[in-house]
Specification:
The complex is a heterodimer of chains A (225) and B (87).
Chain A: E1 4-9, H1 16-25, E2 29-34, E3 45-48, H2 68-78, E4 83-86, H3 88-95, E5 102-104, E6 112-120, E7 136-143, E8 147-149, H4 152-160, E9 164-168, E10 179-183, E11 189-192, H5 210-224
Parallel strand pairs in A: 1-2, 1-3, 3-4, 4-11
Antiparallel strand pairs in A: 5-8, 6-7, 6-9, 9-10, 10-11
Chain B: E1 2-11, H1 18-26, E2 42-49, H2 53-68, E3 74-84
Antiparallel strand pairs in B: 1-2, 1-3
The chains are: A alpha/beta (225), B alpha+beta (87).
Amino acid sequence: MSARVGVVLFPGSNCENDVIEAVRSLGGNGEILWHGDATVNGVDAVVVPGGFAHGDYLRPGAIARFSPVMDAVTKFAADGGPVVGICNGFQVLTEAGLLPGALQKNRRLKFLCTTASLRVESTDSVLTSAASVGQVLRVPINHFEGNYTCLPDTLAELQDQDRIVLRYVDNPNGSVDDIAGICNEARNVVGLMPHPERAVNELLGSADGVPLLQSLLDATSAVAG
Amino acid sequence: MVFSVHVDVQLRPGIADPQGSTIERSLPTLGFDGINGVRVGKSIRFEIEATDEAAARLEVDDLCRRFLTNPVIEDAVVELTEAGVPA
């Protein structure tokens, strides 16, 4: 049976269909999880997609973290289920406390819409297991608040535990230590600003998102098995 | 009792404030010299009902910590004044 990937839909999400299509192109099944339902419907993996959940009011992710679905996502993650937050989804996961740190406005107040080169730093996570360390992936970025920051102690912990899974080759937004993506201590929750779902076909400019999303699909069979 | 609350949210010292620095950089071109340390924050006002000031403050502090600020990057200063007894 193909993996069921639940994609959380908040009012203001706008990348949910891209994720579902990308998952489908890799042989998985994507389905929407409505933010107002306090369940993940028994899916094998959860993606919190990009967009502007709840209009990004107050702070990106600040209101989304209180949506009923987030309690279910938190429990799913605590039970070892694979969870990935992309762009606004990364912001939601930090606000929800599933990942440490915060995402502030980009250096020099610059909105970024381009393709970034990412270096895979660790393959020990649900989003990078099918990639190789040192591999450089070209993946689109599209954000205003992607400048990752955290307390010095948190940064030391991320570094010491090899939890920085992706770094920008050429830091576009001012993120501390060139961080593009991190994972939690159990390595089953990953957040990243770049959009792997927009890089699954050469026709769209890059297929470098495939190893990342393939890793997520692989992680679902690891959990099921 | 009803209390008027003003929450002043500011980025913590040491956290870069691109809005503040952009404003600061533009000041000389407008003829404003000698202005330094511009920081941009948020101002949130509301009313709260509580038995006394201590209880109101406790609840507002909790609200700030869990929702109105992100403690990783922001601090809040709370001003609380008595607004009267609810009708």
